[in-house]
Amino acid sequence: MRPWTLGCGCLAALLLTASTALADTINVPADHDTIQAAVDAAGPGDVIVIRKGRYEEKVLLDGKSDLTLRAKGKVVIAGGPRIPGSGIEVRQGSNILIQGLRIESWASAGVLIDGSTHVTVTRCALRSFGKWAVRAVASDFVEISRCTIDGTLDDGISFGVGEPDGGVDDSIVTRCRLKGCRADAIDVSGDRNEISRNVIQSAEEDGIEIDRDDRGAFNVISRNKVGPVPGDGIYVGGDDCEISDNQVKRNESDAIVIDGTRNAVLRNKCIAPGADGVYLLVAGNSVEDNDVVKPGDDGYDTDAGGQTFTRNRATKAGSNGFEIGGSDSTLTDNSAKHSGGFDLLHGGDNTLGVNAFKTIQIE
Q1: What are phi and psi of 166, to 5 degrees?
Q2: Which of 80, 102, 155, 174 suits a disulfide with 125, CB 3.0-4.6 Å?
Q3: What is the per-residue pLDDT across 266-284, written as a single tens digit (0 to 9) for each?
Q4: pTM of the complete model beyond 0.70
Q5: CA distance 200 to 206
Q6: Comparing C-alpha atoms, which of 245, 231, 244, 278 is closest to residue 259?
């Protein structure tokens, strides 16, 4: 081992030990009457433990780092007509943990994260907001996990949406439950994000939307359960994304919409969507091992060519099992049965391997 490497390691260890030694636990209300007073007094590494009670105050973490806010008992941070804005705001912060709080009745967001990195919101209950439950802009490495969200007048969770220079990258939304969202349940603008294992019970637009306007890339949308929503179950407007192992059930429009290229749509189950099961708007995607049951329109639909369909199934499509527009698509080991129209309707300039289609029509 090189001497400088050992020296740097020892220095890092000494700094970590010193930081830990200097860290304090600050209790609210024992040490400070308000959460904000505790935050103002806290230094890097401190843990603020908030005892049970109702706190009608806005909490601002401005430029804070290495700080934890943790509930002990039922802690409610509540807004109201006299307290505008968001419940908790993290601005220009890093390494922030917010855990176990109930945040409710704020005019804007429950939690607002702006210009920050490595912020985690976990095991929180967020209810009744004039805009979003969680809103992040111009940030990265944000984690929203194991939270319940009920009642927003905009998106439930919004990452970077509507901010040209305010995307959110390298972040994760996982194991959350969302309902009562007046817009999308989860709406993300940014790259390399993961949306996984969430349960979306209700929303008034799309269940999960990725970059309808700004087009992000390399996002993963996996193992989510999307219940009845009036819009699309999952809408992906970016490139090089993975949409895998999701269940979309009884939404009113298309179950999965892909508005980008080089995306992989894998092992999803789409049950009784009002329109198409999988709808591809842009060429060059791969669709494999999906199962679409009782779609109102087509099982799989594209107006763009150059798609690859492998081992997909369509059952009881209201119209066609597979409707393949454009040219240069490849279909192998797919099946359709009990289609209202044709099992396969296509333009003819495609490559057909061995598929289980009883009725085929060339346009």
Answers
A1: -120, 35
A2: 102
A3: 999 999 999 999 999 999 9
A4: yes
A5: 10
A6: 278
